[in-house]
């Protein structure tokens, strides 16, 4: 580099560069001169384009001669297109040509490309006793005046909403919308309850607890009931698929033993004494 070019680069009044008077430049000063980030300067150093001297972990210095040498030797090169970019460009061109051929053929035949319409979901009827809920709704005049609400049924027969829903689907109990409230005919509900008790067995409730009975009597959750029965060896029985019953004798005996060993019940007994 001749003296005239170096003077132009270092002249602040002509170029607007804030070139320091010292002989060494830091990474930040080089970045400010080139108007790039510090990471770009480091990349130039890693590539070998710019020479630098690393004194410590935090101090890296660059001489002015190396800085001007980089500017002198650097030449403008056109960026090469990668093979991946060329392949993508080629596939896009082939797709475009294929689409134009299909459009031209369809125009010649006088047929437009059919648009794919979304498929409508079809209601598949459930197996066995379960059918569509819409089939169970009926008019109020046909059902009569004696009606149960859902809350009354659950309170009277110790049912949950989900359990009564299954019963309603099994025996096709009609439903009536009375003032935006779901009601059910008393005769149909009582008949379905009697048939359900006969189906499960009349002697079953005498010697066995259902999970809902234990939850209601002892204030436990479903997971707590199963865990207690598994821990204390309570005998169980499955009826009609997944409905689980617990033997009353085993449950009551296990509950008495657990109360004796429990620290909270002992403290309560001592307080009462």
Describe this structure in words.
Strand 2 (53-54) and strand 3 (60-63) form a beta hairpin. Helix 3 crosses helix 4. By secondary structure, the chain is mainly α. It folds into three domains: 3-73, Orthogonal Bundle (Multidrug-efflux Transporter Regulator, Chain: A, Domain 2), CATH 1.10.1660; 133-200, no CATH class; 204-261, Molybdopterin biosynthesis moea protein, domain 2. It is elongated. The strands form three sheets. A three-stranded antiparallel β-sheet has the order 1-3-2. The protein has helices at residues 3-10, 12-15, 27-34, 38-47, 64-73, 83-109, 140-143, 150-157, 161-171, 186-200, 204-207, 211-218, 222-232, 248-261, 263-272; strands at 24-26, 53-54, 60-63, 147-149, 176-178, 181-185, 208-210, 236-239, 243-247.
CATH architect. name of the largest domain: Orthogonal Bundle
CATH topology of the largest domain: Multidrug-efflux Transporter Regulator, Chain: A, Domain 2
Strand order of the largest sheet: 1-3-2
Q: Biggest sheet, in brief? A: 3 strands, antiparallel
- Please report the number of helical segments: 15
How many domains is the backbone divided into? 3
Overall morphology: elongated
Helix content: 55-70%
- Which runs of at least 5 residues are low in confidence (pLDDT < 50)? 10-15, 120-130
């Amino acid at each position: 580099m001749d003296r005239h070019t170096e003077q132009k680069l270092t002249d602040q009044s002509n170029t607007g560069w804030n070139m320091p008077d010292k002989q060494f430049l830091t990474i930040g000063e080089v970045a400010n001169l080139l108007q790039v980030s510090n990471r770009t300067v480091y990349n130039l150093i890693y590539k070998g384009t710019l020479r630098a001297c690393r004194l410590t972990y935090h101090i890296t210095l660059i001489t002015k001669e190396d800085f001007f040498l980089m500017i002198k030797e650097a030449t403008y090169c056109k960026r090469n297109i990668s093979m991946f970019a060329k392949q993508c460009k080629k596939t896009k061109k082939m797709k475009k040509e294929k689409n134009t051929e299909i459009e031209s053929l369809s125009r010649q035949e006088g047929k437009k490309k059919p648009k794919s319409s979304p498929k409508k979901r079809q209601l598949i009827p459930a197996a066995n006793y379960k059918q569509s809920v819409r089939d169970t709704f009926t008019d109020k005049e046909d059902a009569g005046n004696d009606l149960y609400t859902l809350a009354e049924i659950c309170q009277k027969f110790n049912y949950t909403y989900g359990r009564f829903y299954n019963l309603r689907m099994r025996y096709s109990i009609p439903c009536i919308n009375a003032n935006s409230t779901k009601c059910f005919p008393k005769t149909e509900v009582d008949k379905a309850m009697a048939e359900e008790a006969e189906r499960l067995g009349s002697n079953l409730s005498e010697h066995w607890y259902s999970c809902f009975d234990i939850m209601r009597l002892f204030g436990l959750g479903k997971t707590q009931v199963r865990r207690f029965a598994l821990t204390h060896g309570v005998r169980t029985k499955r009826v009609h698929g997944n409905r689980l019953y617990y033997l009353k004798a085993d449950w009551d005996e296990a509950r008495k033993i657990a109360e004796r060993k429990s620290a909270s019940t002992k403290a309560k007994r001592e307080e009462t004494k």
